[in-house]
Write a structure and sequence with these properties.
The strands form four sheets. The chain has a seven-stranded mixed sheet, sandwiched between helices. It has a six-stranded parallel sheet with strand order 11-14-15-16-17-18. The chain has two domains: 191 residues, Cobalamin-binding domain (Rossmann fold, 3-Layer(aba) Sandwich), CATH 3.40.50; 277 residues, Alpha-Beta Horseshoe (pyruvate-formate lyase- activating enzyme). Helix 10 runs parallel beside helix 11. 39% of the residues lie in helices and 18% in strands. By secondary structure, the protein is α/β, with parallel strands linked by helices. The longest helix has 22 residues.
């Protein structure tokens, strides 16, 4: 069988001035590569944003937005030198669509015969909205899939694509029909598509060990690809233990991409990855990026038992649900701490029960938040908390109640975010159906940028200032109550500007 040359790439990043100070290895691409190599294909992984980290191009002077990453000439030379048969482009966020299109355009200019396929969370979420728009044309949803119209993109892929992408490359190599590959999107005409149902990987142990040896891990370490402001090391290993979430929060894309069934890798499978990469890259810290790491206490206990043997600090930078396993919550947090965990992040979102119940659809009694924080701290963990402001239907008074509640809940640190109506979520569709957008703001780019109208505010700038002030106030309280912790987190001479950058 003819083998293919496959270029897997992450495109340049669109960033707001002064915002982006970290970058992470493209885990999805690192999972694709070993499967392709095992079948005999030649693989090259390129993170163009990383390789052009010091290159910024101003593309929107009004909003001070920059393109961060490699030049067109560099990308063209990379493609020309490698001469791939297939290029796979990862698009995690809608803000990366234009950068992905740039890579595709350059690829077709170099060689029109290259098959260009795009995938990632953004594509999966777009399919959800596309189906809603077809069912209810009056909703006015933008057709994100049409962003991939034209000659530059040949295909798109949705869902858990590790094995479907392998099938795609094998089919291309054999000159076989690809029309029935799970998750594949095929253009059938102007704004018309054949969208194959995405597959679900029920056994995560089928996933290979991420091919981190194919990328420049030292470059990521140098920048620091950590989420936690209290990180113990720049040599961070980001690990995924599970996929899926049993919750159905209206602002979250996870249920649409990975479903409501949480699937876990075996402890042995997880530890094989950790031990090998600790040895190979001298890892100093582990960060588990699961959406719901604490949902299965038995799996968590088994993992903690093995983590205790390697003696590395670890944390959960993503928000875990507050009210899992209330009766034995302290024991669970203590097991985490004793195995090396130094911080847990709790996804509280709101301090108002009406907002949690009727707007967010989050099954979380407010009265469970403070006890959970107290148990985690008593177990020896630092507690970071996530809060979101600006939900449609949430009043200014309720937002203030959330801020007041958060500041007295006993957590060590706080993050107040502006609601981001992400494509593929119920709130995003609600925003379009009810025309909630601020004028001129209909594309997501930042957790500090307000896109939809907020009760009690006449313009987005006033609301953004409201959230900004909440973050500053939260961390000034921390400085007052625990100056040593504040200094450790932000530095001795932290001012308001540096606080905001780190919040």
């Amino acid at each position: 069988m003819k083998r293919s040359k496959v270029l897997l790439c992450a495109p340049n990043l669109l960033v707001n001035e002064g915002e982006l100070n970290r970058i992470e290895p493209p885990l999805g691409l690192l999972l694709f590569a070993p499967l392709l190599i095992k079948d005999g294909h030649e693989v090259l992984i390129k993170d163009f944003a990383l390789e052009g980290w010091d290159i910024e191009k101003l593309i929107d002077s009004k909003n001070k937005r920059y393109l961060k990453g490699q030049t067109d000439e560099y990308i063209a030379k990379t493609i020309s030198d490698f001469n791939p048969d297939v290029i796979g482009i990862s698009v995690l966020y809608s803000s990366l669509i234009d950068s992905a299109k740039d890579v595709a355009r350059i690829a077709k200019r170099v060689n029109p015969n290259i098959k260009v396929i795009v995938g990632g969370n953004c594509i999966s979420n777009s399919v959800v909205d596309y189906k809603y728009a077809k069912a209810d044309p009056g909703m006015g949803l933008p057709d994100y899939i049409t962003h991939f119209e034209g000659e530059d993109f040949d295909y798109a892929m949705t869902g858990e694509a590790e094995y479907p992408f392998l099938d795609f490359v094998n089919a291309i190599s054999r000159n076989q029909d690809v029309s029935n590959i799970p998750g594949l999107i095929i253009k059938t005409g102007p704004k018309k598509y054949k969208i194959n149902p995405a597959s679900v990987l029920t056994d995560l142990n089928r996933l290979p060990r991420p091919a981190r040896h194919l990328i420049d891990m030292e470059a990521y370490f140098k920048i620091g690809h950590f989420h936690s402001s209290k990180s113990r090391s720049k040599r961070v290993l980001s690990v995924m233990c599970s996929r899926g979430c049993p919750e159905k929060c209206t602002f979250c894309t996870t249920p649409e991409v990975y479903g409501n069934l949480t699937r876990w890798r075996s402890t042995e499978h997880i530890m094989d990855e950790i031990k090998n990469h600790v040895k190979e890259f001298k890892i100093g810290e582990i960060q588990f990026n699961d959406d719901t790491l604490t949902v299965n206490k038995n799996n968590l206990y088994a993992l903690c038992k093995e983590l205790d043997k390697i003696g590395l600090p670890w944390c959960t930078p993503n928000g875990t649900k507050v009210n899992y396993h209330l009766k034995e919550q302290y024991d669970m947090y203590k097991a985490m701490h004793d195995s090396g965990a130094y911080q847990i992040t709790l996804a509280c979102e709101s301090g108002v029960q009406r907002v949690l119940d009727n707007i967010i659809n989050k099954r979380l009694p407010v009265e469970t938040i403070m006890p959970a924080i107290e148990r985690a701290k008593r177990a020896g963990l630092l507690v970071h908390t996530f809060w979101i402001l600006g939900f449609p239907g949430e009043t200014r008074e309720e937002m203030q109640q959330t801020i007041d509640f958060a500041l007295q809940c006993g957590a060590d640190s706080f993050s107040f975010s502006v609601l981001a109506p992400l494509p593929g979520t119920p709130i995003y569709r609600q925003a379009y159906k009810q025309n909630l957008w601020w004028e001129g703001r209909e594309s997501f780019n930042s957790l500090r940028t307000s896109l939809i109208k907020v009760d009690g505010f006449d313009n987005p700038q006033d609301f953004e200032k409201f959230v900004y002030d909440a973050n500053i106030k939260a961390n000034l309280i921390l400085k007052q109550n625990n100056p040593k912790r504040f200094e450790y987190k932000y530095g001795k001479n932290a001012d308001e500007t540096s606080l905001m950058k780190q919040t």
